[in-house]
Amino acid sequence: MNKLPTPHPSTDTREHLLRLAIRLFAERGYNGLTMRDLAEACAVTAPAFYYYFPSKESLYREAVRAAFAVGMQGIDELVQREYDFEGFVYTFTKLLVDAFARSEGFRTLLIRELLNNNAAHLAFIGEEVLGPAMRRIAELAQPLMPAEDARLVGYSVLSLVIGQFTLAPVRGYVSGDRPGELDAGQVVEHVARLLLHGIRRG
Predict the structure, then answer these.
(1) pLDDT for 96-108, tens place per residue?
(2) φ and ψ at 159, to 5 degrees?
(3) What is the 3-state secondary structure (H, E, C) of 65-134?
(4) pLDDT digits (tens, 9 = 90+) for 54-70
(5) Do residues 173 and 111 share a domain?
(6) Do 46 and 78 fall within a single domain?
(7) pTM assigned to the model
(8) Is the pLDDT score of 74 beyond 50?
(9) Exposed, middle or buried by CB within 10 Å (0-12, 13-18, 19+), for 137?
């Protein structure tokens, strides 16, 4: 039996550093870290860190892309299937809920950037990270909802899903649920039904 090729050690190291960087940027934010901080937390020397990532900005952008890619693993399958209008809304909503549940790093990084209002980082996330995925989805959705702007519908779903995850830590104290506990299936059903109801009434 042929053995699978062994990954190159430098590739393993780079991916390991990237995973740790996602967590650290999510916990402390871009401005809360230096490359020296990152190197120390990852137990490597600063020169070794610079060998893999030439600057904190380049590392940050790769970390955001990687975290988003983890969350949006189902997008290729989504755009290759055929839907009716209701089926699309439910499937797209589930994709986003699963993405945010799967990739806490991207969820936290996105919320941090929305609060920090760093124009360069927001432009990067909008144009290079979220933008391509949302445009693909809008192209698929527009024929299913010709009377609506599919881009706005997509961002409405995204906003509702982000809101559910953002408020999860405090929701339990308000509603009597356990703090931080989020039922993904319940969120999908609620957001999809809310959106469908609004569009049909319109």
Answers:
(1) 898 888 888 888 9
(2) -65, -45
(3) HHHHHHHCCCHHHHHHCCCCHHHHHHHHHHHHHHHHHHCHHHHHHHHHHHHHCCHHHHHHHHHHHHHHHH
(4) 999 999 999 999 988 88
(5) yes
(6) no
(7) 0.81
(8) yes
(9) buried
